[in-house]
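Might I ask for a little of your time on a matter of protein folding? The record follows directly beneath this note:
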Amino acid sequence: MKKTLLSLALITGLLSTTNIMAADMQKAYKMNTKHELVRPTNYRTWVYVGTPVTPNELNGGHAAFPEMHNVYIDPMSYKIYKETGEFREGTVIVKELVSVGATAAVSGKGYFEGDFLGLEASIKSKTDFPDEPGNWAIFSFSDMKTGILKETAPVLPAAACVACHQASAADDFVFTQYYPILSAAKAFGEKNPENSAKRSIQKMKK
C-alpha cells in the first residue's frame, strides 16, 4: 500500500512538473517578421494586478507618468508565478494608460479614471530578446497624434525604460512592491491567495 501511495505521489509530481514545462512553452504573444510585437488583445480578461498613478498634483505639476496605469498579466504566467515564484519565459504584462478624470466623487476627493489613452506591454523572453536586460522587452502601441493604437510596435530602447526597472524593481525587473496582488501570489502554491482571510486591519484603522 505504501509503495502504491509513493508511486502515485511521484506520478502526480511528475505530471505537475510536466504541466508547468508545457505551459512554459505556450506563448501569449506574437511577433511579426520584422520582430515587432503584434498588439495584444482581450487583455482585460487577464489577471488584473493593479492601477498605480503618480499624479501631477503630487509631483510639482510635472509627473513623468501622470496617467493611471491599469496593469494585467497573462493568466498562464500568473499561474506559473503563483506556483514557482518566478516570471516564466514568455510572460506578458500589459499596461493600459488611462487619464485622471474627475477628482471628486460622492465618497470625497480623489483620483478617478477618465479616458483610455494608450497601451504598453512588457515581455520576458530569452528566446526572442536575448540581448535585452533581464530578457525583458518593452513596447508602446500609443499614438498620441491620432489616438488610434498601432497594430504592431518595435522594442523600445532599453535605456528608455528598462534601466529604471533594473535599478528599482523588487522582483525580476517588475515593480511587485507596488502590486500587492503579485507580491501575495509569489510562490503561494496551487491555491489562491485572495481566499485567505488574513487582512492588515491595523492599517485600515489608521
